[in-house]
User: Fold this.
Amino acid sequence: MDEIAISARGLTKYYGKTVGIEDLDLDVYAGELFGFLGPNGAGKTTFMRTLMGIFKPTRGTATVLGNDCWKDSVAVNREVGYLSGSAQLYDNLTGEEHIEFISRFNGMGKDPGYTLARRFELELDRKVEGYSSGMKQKLALILVLMKDSPLLIMDEPTNALDPLMQQKLNQVLRERKESGTTILFSSHNLPEVERLAARVGVIREGHLVGTERIEDLRNKRLRNVEVIFNGAAPEALAGMEGVSNFTQVAGNRVQFRYKGAMNPLVRALGSSDVADLNIGHASLEDVFLEFYGSGEGGEGL
Amino acid sequence: MNLNLARKTIHDRWRNTLFYGIGIVAYTLMITAIYPSFSNIPDIDKLLENYPEDLLRLFGGTQFDLTNFNSYINVEFLGLMLVIILGAYVFTFARSVTAGEIKEGTMELLITQPIERWEVVVTKSAVMLAGITALMVSVVVSLIAFGAMFDVGASYAGLAAYLPVAIALFFCIAGYSVLIAVLVPRHGAMAAVGLTIALYLLNFIGESVKSVRWVRYASIFHYYNPANVLDSGSVPWIDVAVLAGVGIASIAVAAYIFQHRDINL
Assistant:
C-alpha cells in the first residue's frame, strides 16, 4: 500500500456557525501530485490552513507526514513548503532579505533561493513594495520551493503569474514530483489542474464531493452536442436518456450535453433531417459539473 | 526567543526608535535649556500657588517648586509629557507584535515557518523592551548631560534611580498593549490608549477624592512617582516589581492565548 503523506479524517472547521470545511476525509499519497479544485469560498484555503496548523480543527483529525496538524504544527512547518493564497510579503524587505529571513528559520543556505530567482527571472535587490503582484507571487514561490521539502502545499500557486511563468512553475512542479516530492495544490481552474495533477478532489461548500483520477474523468464519455436541423428540432430529443442541459437556441438549432454510448444518439438523429452536427468532448470542468452537480447558486468550478 | 525574528524586528524598528530618540533628546535639551531663565521669572512660584491643586496634580505633581530642577522636570516632562511621547512609541510597537502583521497579511508567512507562536510574542516583546530601555537611557543620560551643561542642579542619583521605574512603567504599558492587541487585533491600539488614559485618570481621581483613595492602587500610575524618586535618589523596588510584574504577566498571557487560539487571518 502506498505511503500516505496527508490524511484527513472527519476534518471540520467552523467559523462560529459558518462552515469552513465539514467532515472532510482525504488521503494524499506520498509522491502524488494532487489537485484540489473548487469555487472561491468552497473551503480549499480553510483545508490547507488547517493542515498547516493555522486553524485549530473544530473536530476530526489530520496528519501531515505523520505529524498532527495542530499539536505538531512546528514539525509540520519544518517539513512542509506552504504557499498561502493570500499571504503578503514584507514591503520593507528586499527579495534577498526575504530569502535570508526564511532560510535562517529553516537552517539552510541562501543559494537555493538565488538559483530559483534566476530561474524565475526575479530581481532580488529591490524592496518588495516596488514589486508587481506577479513578482510578489514569484518571490512567494521561491520562498516555498527553496526549502526543498518532501511535501508542498500550495494554494492557487499560479495566481498573478503570466502564462510563461505558469509554464515554468509547472515545469518545476513536475521536476519536484519526479524527485519524489508530494504536492497538494488548489485551484479554481480545472484546465490547470488537468495539466498537472494525476488525481483531483473537488470541494464545494466545505464538503469534499469526490476524488477522481484525471484519466478516469476523461473516460466518463461526456460530450457537448450542437445540431442544426432542416426544419423544426424533434421534441423527443430533449427527453432522451443521457441528454441534459438541453437548450433550443433557435427553432432549428439545439445544444445539449450527452452522456453514454454514441449509437442511441446517432440513431435518434438519423431519423431527423440534420443540416449540421458538432460533437465535442466536454471539458473536465463540464464532466465534474455533470457528475457532482454545480449546486444551487454555485459559482461553478 | 528566536534570534532570527529578533534581528528582523530590530531591522523593522530601529529607524523608528532612532527618530524617537532624537526627538526625545531634543525635547530634553529644550526643557533643560529654558529652565534657568524660567526659574528666574520673579514671583512665578506665587503665580503657580494660585493654580488649583488638582490641576497641578493632573500634570504630574502638586509640589511645584521652580527653584528645584527635580520638581520642574517632573511637572514639565517626566510626569506627563514623557508618558505621552513614549506611550505613542509603545502603542505602535505593541500593535506590530501580532495585530500589525495580521492586518498587513504577513503573519501567515511568519507562523508557517518552524517557530512556535508564543516565540513570536515573546521575541518581539523582548525587542520592544530593549527599545524602551534604549530610549529611557537616552532620556536619563541627556538629562544628566544637559543638566551639567546648564548647571541646573540635577540629581544624578535621583535620575539613576528613576531609570528602572520608567523602564518598568513603559514595559507594563507595552505588556497590556500586546495582550489587548492579541485579544482584539483590529482595535487593540486604540483600546490600549484608552485604557492608559483611564488608568491615568483613575490615579488622579484616587489622589484627589479622599472617599475613593483606594482606587489609585488599581492604577499603574500610582506606582510611577518621578518626583519622589528624583528627590529620594533610591529605587522604589516594590513599585518596579509591581509594574514589571504586570508587564511580564500580560505578555505571558498574550503568548499563551496567541499559541492556543485561531488567528483571524
Observations:
- The longest strand of chain A covers residues 4-15.
- Chain A is about 30% helix and 30% strand.
- The interface with chain B takes residues 49, 52, 54-56, 74-75, 77-78, 82, 84, 86-93, 97, 101-102, 104-106, 140, 143 of chain A (CB under 8 Å).
- Residues 71 and 292 of chain A are 34 Å apart (CA to CA).
